[in-house]
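B., you asked whether I could sanity-check this one before it goes into the benchmark set. Here's the sequence:
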Amino acid sequence: MPFLFRLVLSALKPTCLGFILLTASCASVSIDNLRRFETARPLKPPKEILIVPFLLPDEALRVDREGEELRQFKAELQAHFSSELAERLGKHVAPARILPNADSIPNGEFLLVTGKFVTVQQGSRLLRSTVGMGSGACKMETLVSVYDLSSDSRQPVLRFETTGGSNITQGIGGIVMAPITGPMALTSLLHVIDGARSGVSFDATRTSREITATISEHLHNKGILKNNPRLVPKRLGKVPYITPREESPLTQ
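And here's what the prediction gave me:
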């Protein structure tokens, strides 16, 4: 190998390694703008967590569907997301069940989880797994509210946002760089596989996981959830802040 070529490879290798490490874990969901209402209940573990399917307005959707196919997509996404959330909450926090709509919300020693999808971007699996580096990005954002139903006032307990998805991955380009990056090319290979299988359903699963972790952490912080391990959500770089008690939109 000519001396000049070896010199160029030596100079590029640290840069390429750093770049690969920087983009090694960009397919995830985090929480943001967390507000905790410390004057609100609950004061003991909920007997049950109730879930109202999240609203999914058409303006939130960036998908290649329309008409009946779009309606079916929305129904399947809402059902899948609610099911994932109920399963995770039931496993890590308290028994959970899905309510058909907001008109059937009871009072009692329950928590209510509801919200809406702000962005559902389908992206392209092919572009994520081949081109990578943001091409074909899949994104999901939600607004989440958690209420205490132990009184008629239905006080808010938590409000927060979730954001993330299958965004910047290396794609097949990282594999092409194998002569320079060596074993690090395996990371790119994993990203190619992840890009091919990721999508809206995977982002829904990740989002349900972070919502569950946020509720788990809050109840542990209040010292009322001791039978299940404490979960910690991923944060988007902002420290949660405490807000005073305010009127619940459910009662307006």
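One thing to flag: The chain has a mean pLDDT of 75. Otherwise nothing jumped out at me.
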